[in-house]
Write a structure and sequence with these properties.
The structure is a homotetramer. Chain A is of the alpha/beta class. Chain A has helices at residues 3-18, 27-40, 62-74, 79-84, 124-127, 143-159, 182-188, 245-257, 298-319, 338-350, 369-378, 404-422; strands at 44-47, 91-96, 103-109, 167-173, 196-202, 210-214, 220-229, 267-277, 286-295, 322-331, 356-360, 382-388. Strand 8 of chain A pairs antiparallel with strand 8 of chain D.
Chain lengths: 427, 427, 427, 427
């Protein structure tokens, strides 16, 4: 790729690495993206509530958002910008060529994870001086790279817009971690006219020099927060007057673990956290469970969710307490569109530095891009997802590293060449 | 007491001891009672459905009834009698003096327990040749004595009817074991005009030579049968298609044990039996729990019942199965009417052979006479319960024995003198 | 195949169909097999304890065995025969050619299932007059066909013994249902010198005209009977003195359902039956759980078994009760020996009536032939399993049918030709 | 009482009210007490480790202690004092008269509770300017009054020491809340030569103008902290590698609720808090339960504790996790010594302002003075406990108030006159 673009892309990534923001708090990142897109020349730049359906927002903490707004304001993000975003994050640029052609969307995710970056002096961000400036937050999943690739693709396509037809939508999604943000973007309607969508993720099982085509192996998953509210009472004097939210939660945890296996595919259920009770001698009035289920197919995942719902309702009834379930994240399985993967395969073979193509279908976590892909396919479109390799030590690890100069150009090239191919101006 | 009456009473008791019948199957016993009452001269003799409200019948097994009907027919009970009884058991005689006075009811219970009588040659029924002729059935709680005392009282009162005023109702109750029969008698309405009711039980903590006045200590109790019906499926191939009644039952058992203690009195919960499942490799479609709860007060017992109901409904919901609860027995606490106990105390002091009066209030099981007493008190009447002593080895034991010649006259005297006192013809 | 052999094979199958015997009670069947093998001319015929290691017997009910012995004696099986068998079932014939060559074993299983045969007049055994003569028992899994094919193969090989080298062991295994019998045969040592072993099963997913080669899909499984023994007490008077076996069993059931999923393959756990308690008002002293676990790999199955063991021990400790686990059946996964399957494939192609070869690897229940195969492979041998097709309505169904005249010759031919190939006398 | 003593007592109480310290952190209070005792003239003044057995300390948080030490140092408590106390709190003064006579101990407890004092301007401490100066901490159980009464008694007895015989031990106990401190004082041996011990508590059901004699009604109780440590793993990728501390805790909570009722007295079990897990998608490695049990008798309480221990051990085994139980508090029932209560009754009748004597025996929480009393009685001594009334709005409430000028003199007089009576110098 062009050296000017390359230099900017790497510098952008390293800058973003210093200022990680977790899901739904990416105000500085969003502002950075919006400024860059406008500087490139995009006329239609959307941010926050323009591309976010509040009713579909998952796993957003008002408390964290408030703190992040304070920080962003302190770091120079204009109050009017945040206001205009409706206190939501994420951005999109739309390039209308004016020529008939497909509507193509690209997805880039922008949030970080809650990990403390290593102090190891050999770790590239330490060595080269761009380590995270925020305690307990780190781009340890490579989304700084995703965002930077997206901005480089944005500039590249804009500069070559005369060779393109149709419409290109560049979507910078918030809150991919915990699979929380994609549904809100789907809910905004921005994908409803999209013909082709392409998403990606760096790394995973895909090593440096490889491009991976995602045929399957993405587990459907639903993240759930469960709340029970009981009635407190003095456990010594009047135990019969209490309704224990703690007991309802414990029974729920035991029953959730016991949801039957499914004959049509692997399932998972994780009761990750349980917090209940106010004091040693008080019948507990509050309990909270943080959980997630997964399924090899959407049907298996739905089976798990439905069982959790029944169990929660049943225990609320059995223990005489109130219950509430909040969906904190959602992802489905990948829908395979072979014609799109065929295009990516062809393109990838020609990208400099690509030595092998991996056909990926073994289970590898969950990804909420699947929700976007599903919407596009439901409306008659097609899409796909690829990986571009890097030799990391493990995602979400304190020493995760991108090898940016080697890995990011591959991501850039696949995205850029894909759009130039499917939106090529035939004239 | 009169020697003629005494001899008949003892002979009756020993005869009944040879032919024990468990709750709701007392066809031969009922027929025996009815014949005797008619022979004495009672004009109004009621049996079976005349004093039994079918809707209030608890814990009656159609299967056991069918077998008992066969046996009774074989032993000479006329088919028309059983038909007239509507296949229900129990009897009553009503003595109307024609003179104004109170309506007084006496309760005598007639069923046996499922215990195999001992082979010990020293055991009185073995020694004297009146052991139970029925395998696994025995009058090991003394109801043969109760019935015989009742019949002796019936003859005594009838013979002295000219000295009585008001009305006397002699009630021979079926199915006291498991506290199943009293509610059906209450439901028939026969107690609705009763002013005074007196019940009794031999033994318990009351030793030979003592009469006990029951001030309290009778636990309220509800016996419940719980049924779950699930959906079977092949547990290996399609576990997700099954709905396990077994799991719902197990969760129910665990939650029932965990019903909170009550600050206002002792409670009990017993999960006595659980039977679930059809085969090793089939998701269980059926489960059955046999349980009972108790409470030091009716309110505590109600709290327990309500919790069981909620738990069963909650687990049905949680596991997606059907549930059903059947009340198999009911008793409440004793309502204390001091004026009645005062009368019994006075009378008892004068009864030959009575050396001491016990004032009883420590917990001593459940008794469904409490349901009759409750109804009488609700309608403005009063009542009470007493014990007449005997030195047994423990109720429901294989070697339980009444010491009939010594203990039964005391029971007879208290009942007889009580009626002669409260229904004395003032003229 | 030879018409004489064919006629005998079909007649044998139909005769066996009339006299089904469940696992470990196959005394009449064993006697029938032994008589036939001797009549054919085999000198070494083993039965019962000669091929059964008592310590490895799984899931054998002394009570059922006693009843079966009575029946067998009544049906003419000599008492000395049963005595000589040590009251165990199963048989084997050994053909020693006297010429150097491999030791080859064939497995035929002989037990029936507990299913009541349909009354449908169109059902072949009804139509042709060979329906099961035993209520609640039926050859609804085709083992009557297996046994008959085995006896036909026995005659065929014996008649052609001059063309064979090495040793042939024909093993008639009891108690395959519930995967109970194979381990006992393994334990006897009869397989320890075997170089090649071949087993089969009719039907499954294999349709008439097909032969299936079993590459995988057989789940490892362990059947477990769990017993808890507690301490009884009066649940109303002294609940603290009891130790509830019922509660320990219920907690065990709930925890077993909650054994974690395994990341390396499918698992199953079925709590099929739970029977606990003696009476409504007695703290339950006895509880019994009938269960099974399965795993896509032996390691996954072992993980499940180990968890069950821990859960049972833990609940015994928590509830202060005694526990006991009895292994009631065992099977492992298939070990694939491609060279053996290659031979079967080649042979099968030439068998008259075979239109297609199925390569089977999708999950299809458990089979304890796997335990025999495992032992042979552990000792350096090889082996395999095939299916011969039939168009049944489902195994263990009341109308299961073999279509014997069409399906059985295929089974016969594959076995017979296999031995003639691997034990061909080269001279 | 003497006006000088009265003024000092009230001023002391109001000063202590401004500086509440919770259990095991009472460094400033202890220093205050020690200084006062020395100023009065006591030669033997013990503090911290001199009267505390570290091995018997219950429910002490090193973290809270560290923070309290910092605060105390900041507020002028000398570092050497804290060091000399071994970082433990509590104090005692010993008055040896040199004349033969009984060893008499008085108990005064000094810690506060974690309650935020009300802002109501009518609340006496607000109105009169002595409200708690510490957020979330308040003397809302009256121990400021206990301590001040103790110091007034100390001065009074010292000033009248010539009229006394024997030895008097004035014990200022830390950490009574949560029944944590008494066992450590018992462990120090300071009570081993005590002949007579007297303790007290203000308020409860005892109204202003009443003195209450505690005959019974104090429940034995054990406070337990339960810890489970499991093995974390990725709940999606390798659930089988994790050992869930959360599940062990949930099963423990359910089983604890289900500990059988006790036939010989009321019991309680409260699972007040449960905190488990690290993240949504990680098998939880840590779990914590805060619980307490109670019993109407020490035997019933022991039954509960033993069951909890078995349940915890059983679930650790079942789930393959480590467990640890820490006793966080202990109290037993009151041992009644009628001769001591008789003395208090006699004295109290003569105390100005006392209008009635309450004979208390209904259940009223737990109190660790019972552990001291038990030790004294075990060594052949006797003792008792009384209440002096006040009209509060409820202990541990934000507006609890002592009505110090009216209620405290009663407490003072009973203690002072009691010692002057039992340790009267007969000469």
């Amino acid at each position: 790729m062009d050296k000017r673009l390359f230099d900017e892309m790497i510098a952008t990534r390293r800058h973003l690495h210093t200022m990680p923001e977790e899901g739904w708090t990416e105000f500085e990142t969003t502002y950075f993206i919006v400024k860059r897109l406008r500087e490139i020349g995009y006329e239609t730049v959307l941010a926050g509530k323009d591309i976010i359906d509040p009713a579909s927002v998952r796993g957003r903490s008002e408390e964290l958002v408030n703190a992040a707004v304070e920080r962003a304001l302190g770091n120079g993000v204009p109050a009017e910008f945040i206001e205009a975003c409706g206190r939501y994050t994420g951005a999109a640029a739309i390039l209308k060529t004016g020529r008939p052609g497909p509507v193509t969307a690209l997805r880039f995710d922008i949030d970080c994870v809650c990990v403390q970056e290593t102090d190891d002096p050999e770790h590239a961000p330490n060595k080269l001086g761009f380590r995270s400036g925020r305690k307990g937050l780190m781009h340890a999943c490579g989304h700084d790279g995703h965002t930077s690739v997206g901005l480089a693709v944005a500039r590249d396509l804009f500069e070559h817009r005369d060779a393109l037809c149709g419409t290109i939508k560049l979507i910078f999604q918030p809150a991919e971690e915990g699979v929380r943000g994609a549904v809100a973007i789907v809910g905004s309607g921005i994908l409803d006219d999209v013909d082709i969508i392409l998403g990606s993720h760096v790394g995973g099982k895909c090593k440096l020099g490889h491009v991976g085509l995602v045929h399957g192996g993405v587990l459907a998953s639903t993240k759930l927060d469960i709340y029970f509210e009981g009635v407190p009472s003095h456990a010594g004097n009047a135990p019969e007057k209490g309704k224990s939210a703690l007991m309802a939660a414990c029974a729920t945890a035991m029953m959730m673990a016991g949801i039957p296996r499914h004959g049509e595919g692997a399932s998972r259920v994780a009761v990750g956290k349980l917090i209940a009770g106010e004091g040693r001698n008080v019948v507990p009035a509050h309990a909270y469970i943080q959980t997630e289920v997964r399924g090899e197919t959407a049907a298996v995942n739905d089976f798990m969710v439905k069982n959790v719902e029944q169990i929660v309702a049943g225990n609320a009834l059995a223990y005489g307490v109130q219950s509430r379930i909040v969906v904190a994240g959602e992802a489905t399985t990948i829908i395979e569109c072979p014609e799109i993967l065929d295009i990516v395969r062809e393109i990838a073979r020609d990208v400099p530095g690509v030595e092998a193509i991996d056909e990926l279908s073994t289970p590898a976590g969950s990804e909420d891009f699947t929700m976007m892909l599903k919407r596009v396919v439901e409306h008659g479109g097609r899409g796909g997802m690829f990986r571009w390799g890097c030799n990391h030590h493990g995602h979400h690890k304190r020493d995760f590293e991108l090898q940016d100069t080697e890995s990011m150009p591959v991501g850039f090239e696949v995205f850029s060449r894909f759009v130039r191919r499917v939106n090529r101006c035939e004239g």
